[in-house]
Each structure stands twice: as C-alpha cells, then as structure tokens.
Amino acid sequence: MSEVLQTCGEAKAAAPAIASAPAARRNAALEAMADALDASHDAVLAANAEDVDSARAEGVSPALVDRLTLTPARLSDMADALRQLVGLTDPVGQVVRGFTLPNGLDVRQVRVPLGVIAMVYEGRPNVTVDAAGLAIKSGNACVLRGSRTAIRSNTALAEVLRGALQSQGLPAEAISLITDTSRDSVKELGRARGLVDLLIPRGGAGLIQSVVEDSSVPVIETGVGNCHVYVDRAADLAKARAIVVNAKTHRPSVCNAAETLLVHRDVAAEFLPDVVDALVEAGVELRGDTTAQELATMGPATPEDWDTEYLDLVMAVRVVEGFDDALGHIAAHGTLHTEAIVTEDRAAARAFVAAVDAAAVMVNASTRFTDGGEFGFGAEIGISTQKLHARGPMALTELTTTKYIVEGDGQVRR
Amino acid sequence: MSEVLQTCGEAKAAAPAIASAPAARRNAALEAMADALDASHDAVLAANAEDVDSARAEGVSPALVDRLTLTPARLSDMADALRQLVGLTDPVGQVVRGFTLPNGLDVRQVRVPLGVIAMVYEGRPNVTVDAAGLAIKSGNACVLRGSRTAIRSNTALAEVLRGALQSQGLPAEAISLITDTSRDSVKELGRARGLVDLLIPRGGAGLIQSVVEDSSVPVIETGVGNCHVYVDRAADLAKARAIVVNAKTHRPSVCNAAETLLVHRDVAAEFLPDVVDALVEAGVELRGDTTAQELATMGPATPEDWDTEYLDLVMAVRVVEGFDDALGHIAAHGTLHTEAIVTEDRAAARAFVAAVDAAAVMVNASTRFTDGGEFGFGAEIGISTQKLHARGPMALTELTTTKYIVEGDGQVRR
User: Fold this and answer.
1) DSSP code of A301?
2) Do B293 and B300 touch, CB atoms closer than 8 A?
3) Which of A170, A223, A301, B381 has the most crowded Cβ, counting Cβ within 10 A?
4) Does B99 contact A at CB distance below 8 Å?
5) Entry pTM
6) Residue B251: which of B190, B313, B306 has the closest Cα?
7) CA-to-CA distance for A54 and A37, rounded, in angstroms?
C-alpha cells in the first residue's frame, strides 16, 4: 500500500477519537501542542536550517526562502495561534436547527466534524501548525502534504504536535504528515475517496487548478484573488485614493490585495494622476490601458495583465466607460474573491453589490478586509472562492458538517 | 462548439436575470409554468407516448416503462408541485448573519443563488419539471440532461416551461435541456468549469459514481442509501417490528428504505421469527447470516448482500454480537445516508447517535422519515449523502450560496 493511502487510512481510523473527544480535551491538546512547540525550538530550528540550506543551494528565490525560514519569534507566534484557538467557540455539537414534526418526531440538525481534512500546501511550514490546530479544534483528523522544500521542518513540527496529542490521550495519527512530496502523492490524495472528507489546496493558482482537475474527493478552492477596485463617477476621491493604496500596498503578496484599478472616465482625469503619484511613491509599478497612460505616467497593460494575480507591487489600470463597463470587466476577469466599489451614490452601491458575483463585495472599504481575523472569526484556514459549502473566510464552522438526529417512540411513515 | 458547452453558456448568460428577478416575478413564472403544463397535456402526452413505444420496442423493463410513462394525473401532480413552490419562503436575499466590526464596517452575509445548476438524471420525466421549478424558485438557471429513453418527453416539457418563463419576461435559456444523451455529454457537463456552479447526479449508484469520478465542477452526491435498522438488546420489540416492516416495505424502491436488519443476539431468538413472519407476509425475501437462518426461515446472505442497495422487497439480516458489532457493520457497509436504532436504553441511543456517521440517525423511528417533505422543507432536490455544503434532504436553501457584503465609509486596513 502506498504511503498516501496508508496515512489516510490511519487518519480515518483516528478520526472518531477526535470527533468524540469533549471540547475540554481537544482544548487541552491544543495547549499541549503549543507548549510542546515552545519546548522544541532547537529541534525544529535545526531541521528548518537544513531545509533553508538546501533551498539556497538549489537557488530558490529569496522571497520563498523567507517564507520557509523559521525563527524563535515565528515559532512563538505559531504557539500563540494554537492558544488563541482554545478560546474560540467550539463548533462541534451546536444545534443548527431543531423542530418537532406533526407526528411527534423530534428533529435536530447538529454540527459534527467532517472526519479527515487533507491540506496540500507550499513552502510555508507554519501551515502545518495552523492546519493541525484548526483541525483538532473542530474535531477533525488531518492529513498534511507540504512541499519538498519544507519537508524536514514539517516532519519536525508534526512530530512535536503528534507527541502532544498522545500526551493528552488522543491518537497521534489524527495529525498525519505525508512525506512523499512527489506530484503523484497529491493526485493520490485527491482520489482517496472514503478516506478524505475534504481536501483543501492552499497555494498558487497552478496547484489549486491541478488539484481541482484531478480530484474525486470533495475539494474547496481557496485563495486565488484577482481583486478589483472600481472608482465610480460618484466616488469621494480622497477615500478612493486611500482605499486603492491600502488594497494594493498593505500586503501585496496575499489573495485579498487588489490587482486592477478600474476608474470611471468622468473622474479619471482628476483621480488618476493623484492616485498614481501615491502608488508610485509606495513602490508600485503601474500598467494601464491607452486612456490611463494618457492621463498619468505608466507602462502599457497587455491583455494578460487583466487576468494576472500579481501578488506583488504591480497594478493594472483601466479607464472604464461607465458602471456597466466596470461590471463587465469584473465579470470577465474576476476570480469570485473580493471586489470593491468606491462611490457615494447609493443606487450605484446597491447595484454593484447585487450584480457582482464574489465571495465578498466591498463598498467604500479596502479589499484587504476579506479575512477571517478581520471578520472576527478568530482563525481561518483560507478564503474560499467557490460557492459550495463555504464562501469567503473559512473558519471553524466551515470545517464541520451536520447530521440530522431524529428521535421518536416508534413512528412509522404512513 | 459542442451542444453541452453552448447550452451551459446560454444558461450562464441567463442566470443573472433569474438571480436578480424579484421573488414575485419568479413566483409568477412558477405559476405560468404550472398553467402552461396544464394547457399542454396533449403535446406532452403525445411525445411521451413515442418515448414509451420506443422503450417497449427496445425491451425496457416494465418498471422502467412505468417510471417513464406520463398520464394526465401525473402531469397535474407536476403542475401542483410547481404551485406549491410558490408558497415556500424565498431563500434569496436572506441575511444569514450580520455584524458591525470595531472599525465601523457593516458586514452582512446574504443568501444568493448559485448561478447554474446542472442535473443529470435517468428515465423519469417529472425530474425535468421538479428540477426546473426548484431552480427558478431559488433564483438559479438550470441545465437538464435526462436520459435517452425520455428525450421526447423532456424536450416537450422543457419547451412548455421555457415558453412560460418568456411569458413572464424571463429568459427561456434559464431552463436549458441538453439533447445529446451520449455518455460524453455527461462528462463534458462535469468539466464545464466556470459555466456550471453545481452538478447533481440523480439516479443509480453507477451514474453517481461516474459523475463524481469524472467531474471537475462541484458535485453533490445524492441518494445512494444502504440503510440499516439495528434492533438493540433493549428494544421494544413491538416498535421494532413496526419500524422494520415500515422501513423495508413502505416504498422499497427509494433511497431511505432499509436494506439490512441487524439484531442483537440477546433478542434475536424472540424477535426474528416474529418480524420475519411479518416481512414475508408483506412479500419480502430475506437473506440471513448463519445465526439468522437458524432462528427463522430465510435464504443465505452472501458477502455482497451487506453492500447491496436492493431497492426492492429483499432484506439482508444479520445477528450481531452486541452494540459495537452493529456499529462496526454500519461503519463498514453504510453509505452515510440513514441509520436507525430501536432501543429503550437511553445510553445506547446516545452512543449510537454520536458514533454513527450518516446524514440522518433515527432513534425509534423508520428510516423513511429522511425526506424533505417529511421534515417540512416543502420540496427537495435529493438527499445528499456527502458532507460538504448539504447533508440529508436538500431543499431550496441548499440551492443557494452566500456572499459577504461589507459597507463602510473609507475604511482601510491598519
């Protein structure tokens, strides 16, 4: 049997023990995981140093090396994140709805863990800890398949977390790491029907696309965000400038950063030179359509730019003919993540909110607010850009399903 | 372009008009669809007669011919079902939750249509009308792919429904029928990413399995139900008999019918002869394990029987060593649909409910109650046996997704 199937089978076998563990024990396990992390800096940092050395030797880019690198401070942050989970409301056992049928049957729809959650992710070892913590908090077992570059770090982290689980009388297999980092292992994970209840790919568009195409287990797509800010004719231009600069530059490498600026032609001449100055000052490279290039200093945009999630200090700019043109552009190029309008026109705001198909629609606010932490959900495992099960920030609730419990005293159907 | 992609593209283009239509207009469309059906008996029945003739000529089984056959009464029932949808609560626009963030942003999570719902189904033409009605009620466009045997009936029905949509100023393409009934058309539908928001296969296990394996669009599995009734040591045997007989014989051809009876060894000698008499009297063929065969008259069960959804007057019987043995059998052979325990022992009931992984768990009630109509949901598109998005009876709410609407006055992220 392959490592993937064996690991998934072990996780599946461990899942009932996690699902049936009372919240107090799952929380104790999270505390133990945090404490164990704090006590294991030396071992984890040593393993990570080997990963970092290999990555450098292979010529991995400095940005990726930075994502890979662990420090005592980063490890402490990871432990703190585990401790913060303890304080969050337990989703397991919540009664979503309940009613009594005319025949006297009592029906309750109750929140229960999914079972086994698998994650496929790229070079950031903190995902190992985040995902494991969210899984345990929500009563699930997890199967983790990180990248080859981080394999030593992930192995060390998983060992620490598994030991902590065992110390609380829970099965270590509820946190299982797949060490086979070949492409085939992802494919096999996506085909492990009956063993994997949910597969979440977390990473670039290419990884997500291939997981979606190849999987027969349920998948939730996360995080590809080609987000737009549309500055309407009726925008307050000072608000618009602040929102555009924030959406683009606050943290350009994440999915809720804006990638394209759409400006209504009636305000373009006034707005563009001003916002471009601010963006350039913040280090942003701009690529515009012909009209935008005439109104402010920037390079030309190619058709590919409208579909590119730069995840960098680059922004595409288009002057649109009007509201409908903006909607059309977003419908053609958006990724159903987050779209923003800046306007003081109530009718335009309502129409935008109604027409735009996205997980989150912002009116006079930065795209950066689409975030589980910002929404007050406490923790998130990603931003779902699909429509089924979960849309937008996915927190603990989204890592559960429900079951109907029907209690009677002998009722049969007439 | 293939018919499938063209049809899906037309439905996708029509979806915003349905999504943005107020409930009053969608309800008027449902009324118009019902009236048009009532006025089109001749045309639909003539088309159906051709389908029935062809099916008979091809030697299709009488049961399948019966499912295929339309009558004036069945057409009236279909129209009535459309009218009943009118009275149900509109899911679109419901605010699922709403809150104000510390920075003053107002966040609302609002229920919105999914977009395009595709259905793949077998020989029953009423699914064409049911699915179209549920889609329009929930603000969605639909793409319908029925079976070859029913193609003339489905074409006639779709034409009637599309005309009714148009009469209410809604695009006919919101109800689109795929006339290509090759296997490839199902595959292509399952690969129509960006055009199909949800694909629901409705039919036998083979159809569902192939759709799940081959699709990259989101799929919800429905309806495979290898349901068990477990008669516990502490069962009230009179209740148990009524429940077993009802679960097996009330409507054996549907997914929530029971297929296997598990009896605790301590009550098997008393219970089995009695229940077997009642089942045999109702025309049920029984297939038991060795112990069951010793206690009552029945044929032998093979290992395949434990995994067979008979959908017929056949029932497998096993005497289990105890509660855990029953749980183990259900875990090994259940299809996550509906499982029932009959017991007066509160602890056993609680343990069963907690341990069994299924969409619905019954205590002292027939498995037949897992049903949207019985639960009071008014209408259902199927019983989901998967854990994501929807579990158990899928009604109007499950045909929607949500979007977050965030309104501010210039907030940026700090």
Assistant:
1) P
2) yes
3) B381
4) yes
5) 0.93
6) B313
7) 23
Residue type, position A283, single letter? G
Q: Using DSSP bridges, classify how beta strands B141-145 and B299-300 pair: parallel, antiparallel or unpaired.
A: unpaired
DSSP type of residue B172: G
C-alpha pair distances (Å), A164 with each of A28, A132, B120, B160? 9, 12, 47, 64
Chain A contact set for B407 (CB, 8 A)? 349, 362-365
- Chain A partners within 8 Å of B354 (Cβ): 20
DSSP B118-149: EEEE-S-THHHHHHHHHHHHTT-EEEEE--GG
- Per DSSP (E only), the strands in B249-329 are 258-264, 285-288, 299-300, 314-320
Interchain CB contact of A126 with B (< 8 Å): no
Closest CA to A115 of A2, A11, A224: A11
Please indicate if any CB of chain B lies within 8 Å of the CB of A334: no
Rounded mean pLDDT for each run of 10 residues along chain B, 414 residues in total: 96 96 97 98 98 96 92 97 95 96 96 97 92 97 97 98 98 98 95 95 88 92 92 98 98 95 98 98 98 98 97 97 98 96 97 96 98 90 93 95 97 96
Per-residue pLDDT tens for A378-389?
888 999 999 999
Q: Which residue do the tokens 């943290």 mark?
A: A251
Distance (Å, whole) CA A300 – CA B120: 46
Q: Cβ contact (<8 Å) for B243 and A360?
A: no
Q: Return the residue matching tokens 């052979």.
A: B333
Q: Which residues of A touch B406 (CB under 8 A)?
A: 360-363, 365, 369-370
Q: Is A369 on the interface with B (CB under 8 A)?
A: yes
Burial B347-359 (b: 16+ CB within 10 A, else e): ebbebbbbbbbbb
- ipTM for this model: 0.93
- What is the distance between the alpha carbons of residues A235 and A361, in angstroms, rounded to a whole number? 16
Quote the CA–CA distance of B368 and B362 in Å, as a whole number.
10
Other CB atoms within a 10 A radius of the CB of residue A294 amount to 12
Which tokens go with B124? Answer: 């029953």
Selection from B156, B145, B217 nearest residue B181 by Cα: B145
State how far the Cα of A236 lies from the Cα of A275, in Å rounded to an integer.
Answer: 13
Question: Tokens in use for A293?
Answer: 């290039």
d(CA A333, CA A408): 53
User: Is B218 in contact with B199 (CB distance < 8 Å)?
Assistant: yes
**Residues of chain A with C-beta less than 8 angstroms from the C-beta of B193:** 212
At B122-153, the pLDDT tens digits run 989 999 999 999 999 999 999 999 999 999 99
Q: Return d(Cα B224, Cα B227) in angstroms, integer.
A: 9
Higher pLDDT among residues A63 and B22, named by residue: B22
- The answer on pLDDT for A412 being more than 90 is yes
Rounded CA-CA distance B402/B414 in Å is 27
Tell me the pairing of strands A360-365 and A338-342.
Answer: parallel
Task: Judge whether B381 and B91 are in contact, CB under 8 Å.
Answer: no
Q: How many CA atoms lie within 13 A of B88 on its CB side?
A: 24
- Coil/strand/helix, residue B92: coil
Long-range contacts of A210-215 (CB under 8 A, 24+ apart): A210/A186, A211/A120, A211/A186, A212/B193, A212/B216, A213/B216, A214/A186, A214/A187, A214/A190, A215/A189, A215/A190, A215/A191
Residues 6+ apart with CB under 8 A from A126: A70, A74, A77, A78
The crossing angle, in degrees rounded to 10, of helices A126-137 and A72-86 is: 10
Contact status of B250 with chain A (Cβ, < 8 Å): yes
C-alpha–C-alpha distance, residues B5 and B194, integer Å: 11
A121 three-class SS: strand
Mean pLDDT of all residues in A223-243? 96
Residues 283-322, chain A: which have Cβ within 8 Å of B? none
Contacts 24+ apart (CB under 8 A), A204-207: A204/A122, A205/A309, A207/A120, A207/A122
